Amino acid sequence: MNASEILVRPIITEKSNDLEVFDQYVFEVAQNANKIEIRKAVEMAFGVRVEDVRTMVCRAEKRRVGRFRGMTRKRKKAIVRLRAGDSIDFFGEQ
Question: Does pTM top 0.90 for this prediction?
């Protein structure tokens, strides 16, 4: 798998923005990707050095919209910590 298949999307929320102070970024990743593949994909896609990768599998949740019931999809998230001095600019501000 290449980097675009492993890294599905960055997760940008208030909580994940607070983690940027500690050089940590959150990504949604492919279900079958392991920590080594995630590390290489982030380093190759953004040109940074990764120090640590933590992963978690988020189970599907029940949701309801009006009278319709359903489930959200199951997903895998990765919290990536970069070395001091490295950062990722998602919005092109710098």
Answer: no
